[in-house]
Amino acid sequence: MANLVNGVCGKLWMASAVAVLSGVVACGASNAPSSASSGSPNSAAASSGAGASGAGQSAAAPKFAEVAPPADQTGGFDGAKAYEHVAKLVRFGPRPPASEALHHSQDYIIAELKAAGCEVDQDDFHASTPKGNVAMKNIVGKAPGTGQGIILLLTHYDTLSSVENFVGAEDSASSTGMMLEMGRQLCSKKGPNSVWLAFLDGEEAFVNWDQDDDHTYGSRELAARMAVSGDLKRVKAVLLADMIGQYNLKILRQSDSPKWLNDLVWKKAAQLGYKDIFVSEETTTSDDHDPFLARGVPALDIIDLNDYIAAGYWHTPQDTLDKVSPRSVAIVGYVILESVDELQNKFH
After folding, report:
1. What is the pTM of this model?
2. Of 67, 154, 155, 237, which residue is the least packed, with the fewest Cβ within 10 Å?
3. CA 329, CA 336: separation in Å to the nearest integer?
4. Is residue 215 classed as helix, strand or coil in its secondary structure?
């Protein structure tokens, strides 16, 4: 997520109605967290835990955690396995670009994608940042398709470098762990369109999100490379997942994304019984989907940023594993998995 620098919100969060959070407005407007969406933590333990992470940062499993629904209740998507991936990534410790922990994360992501049967492409590139030239890597797992179309799924796996002991359990491990389980679900299938799962480096700002394009290095690289190769014109839709594992999850529609794509995902979520999580309010968020929107590709960000800001955990050392609900990860994974099926049917 974008940096808060000198009181300026990097990620732009503009809800349809201004909400005051205990007398403080974050990122312009925000909705206060609800206690009714995914329920308060219960006494059932999560199905997988984690030990201590790097840099002395605790990654202990939550003492009280919501449990992921059984996979047979979520279309085969195994929320417990996804949560295990989240815990593993957190155990690596802080994962800023070019760090040893990020290299371990890269090895882990690649190994898991290959084990799932995905074809894996690696794009090593160098990004010009306010901190100098930084080596980065995008990783793309590919599920085969019978036609030429592509459905592109995105997540970022780096963490913020400017906050000490920041392990990014919600921001970025939750979506990365979810996407690894998505690969296990998709890479053994062959649909009408290929599904690409892109794990992006360099989403976070090094100094200030609001200045000099200091953000989304990996997604800008991917969009540019796909434009040059001709693959971009084959993309039917882009679904970005980012910050999807917190308790009391509330995901808002994105007003700058195509209405049809919002409608497709939100209709599917409602059909599955998750209208309390995928809510009807609108917002606009600057994120890794932006480079694709800028090139005319339908793209949507699935994210709950403002509730995490309201809770006080965003971009702090408190973004730890105990803030991530296995149930939330499972539900978002289920909705995206079913939305991919809807996109396959739409673009058959």
Report:
1. 0.85
2. 67
3. 11
4. coil
Q: Tell me: the pLDDT tens digits for 317-343?
A: 999 999 999 999 999 999 999 999 999
Q: Quote the CA–CA distance of 15 and 38 in Å, as a whole number.
A: 21
> Per the domain annotation, does 116 fall within a domain?
yes
Name residues of the chain where pLDDT drops below 50: 1-61, 63
Give me the domain span that covers residue 134: 72-250+287-303+318-346
Q: Does some domain include residue 268?
A: no
pLDDT at 212: 86
User: Residue 66 carries which side chain, given as an amino acid letter?
Assistant: E
CB 87 within 8 A of CB 61: yes
Q: Which CATH number goes with the domain that contains 221?
A: 3.40.630.10
Any idea what DSSP says for residue 11? S
Q: In this structure, is residue 13 part of a structural domain?
A: no
Task: Cite the DSSP H helix spans in 116-258.
Answer: 174-186, 217-229
Sign of CA dihedral 207, 208, 212, 216: positive
Kindly give the interhelix angle for 100-115 and 79-91, rounded to the nearest 10 degrees: 150
Nearest Cα to Cα of residue 157 among 95, 248, 114:
95
Bridge partner residues of 124 (DSSP): 137
Q: Indicate the burial class of 345 (C-beta count within 10 angstroms; 0-12, 13-18, 19 or more).
A: exposed
CA distance 21 to 151: 37
Give backbone dihedrals phi and psi of 199, rounded to 5 degrees, phi first.
-100, 110
- pLDDT tens for 68-85 read 999 999 999 999 999 999
**Are the C-beta atoms of residues 195 and 151 closer than 8 Å to each other?**
yes
Q: Do 197 and 221 contact (CB within 8 A), yes or no?
A: no
Q: Taking the CA atoms of 294, 296, 299 and 304 in sequence, report the sign of the dihedral they define.
A: positive
Q: State CA 230 to chain mean position distance.
A: 25
Pairing of strands 8-9, 4-5: antiparallel
What domain count does the chain have? 1
Domain contains 310: no
Three-state DSSP state, 13: coil
* pLDDT (tens digit per residue) in 189-245: 999 999 999 999 999 999 999 988 999 999 999 999 999 999 999 999 999 999 999
CA 334 to chain centre: 14
